[in-house]
């Protein structure tokens, strides 16, 4: 591909390999393969061997410590809950990478928590704060009042649940089952 040719790529499209080019802005190194993290035009700096992608929607959003994010619980382990981070609060730009985050059991709520399943369940939509980023690992906290579950999903029938007058309790809209959660003050009933 020449320097003046235009080529549009999608996020995740393979652009080359790490032996060929240096991954520049709008790209990431996926185990030796350089892929696009945005929708845009491919640019190659032949002298410096840098490949980059100019986003059609401005620079993509990168996570940083202190950001408030929204995501969905994908897995619950004894010590941590995994979250697929969907977007950053008050930031309409798409995320540069498909970030995965984790909430350690000590970062779920202020009070003692016997098990993480009393705070989150798979499928729940949560609001969380970024407390630490190490490489691809994003540590999240839901200790703050406005953080926690925004929308809970019933473990029996998978329908959404509403809050009750008891703290950190939700009830299924369909089967009336009651479950525990770390409920956010922004819970969507
Ligand atoms: Zn139910």
UniProtKB/TrEMBL annotation:
State where the protein is found. Cytoplasm
**GO annotation, biological process:** RNA catabolic process; RNA processing
Taxonomically, which superkingdom?
Archaea
Q: Got a GO cellular component term for this one? A: cytoplasm
Q: Which UniProt keywords apply?
A: Cytoplasm, Exosome, Metal-binding, Zinc
Molecular function, one GO term: zinc ion binding
Where the record annotates domain S1 motif, the positions are: 66-143
What residues does Zn(2+) bind to? 154, 157, 172, 175
Give the matching Pfam families.
ECR1_N (PF14382)
Q: Which PROSITE patterns does the entry link to?
A: S1
UniProt function note: Non-catalytic component of the exosome, which is a complex involved in RNA degradation. Increases the RNA binding and the efficiency of RNA degradation. Helpful for the interaction of the exosome with A-poor RNAs.
What does the similarity note say? Belongs to the CSL4 family.
State whether it acts alone or in a complex, and with which partners, per the record.
Component of the archaeal exosome complex. Forms a trimer of Rrp4 and/or Csl4 subunits. The trimer associates with an hexameric ring-like arrangement composed of 3 Rrp41-Rrp42 heterodimers. Interacts with DnaG.
- The name on file for this protein is Exosome complex component Csl4
From what organism does this protein derive? Answer: Methanobrevibacter millerae
């Amino acid at each position: 591909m020449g320097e003046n040719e235009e080529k549009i790529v999608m996020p995740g499209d393979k652009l080359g390999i790490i032996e060929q080019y240096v991954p520049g802005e709008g790209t990431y190194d996926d185990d030796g393969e350089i892929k696009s993290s945005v929708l845009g035009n491919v640019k190659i700096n032949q002298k410096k061997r840098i490949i980059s992608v100019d986003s059609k929607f401005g620079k993509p959003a990168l996570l940083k410590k202190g950001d408030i994010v929204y995501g969905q619980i994908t897995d619950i382990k004894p010590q941590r809950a995994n979250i697929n981070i969907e977007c950053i609060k008050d930031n309409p730009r798409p995320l540069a990478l498909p970030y995965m985050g984790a909430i350690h059991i000590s970062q779920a709520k202020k009070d003692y928590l016997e098990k993480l399943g009393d705070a989150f369940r798979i499928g729940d939509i949560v609001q969380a704060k970024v407390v630490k980023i190490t490489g691809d690992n994003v540590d999240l906290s839901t200790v703050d009042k406005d953080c926690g579950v925004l929308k809970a999903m019933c473990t029996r029938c998978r329908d959404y649940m509403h809050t009750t007058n008891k703290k950190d309790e939700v009830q299924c809209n369909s089967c009336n089952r009651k479950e525990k959660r770390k409920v956010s003050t922004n819970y969507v009933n």
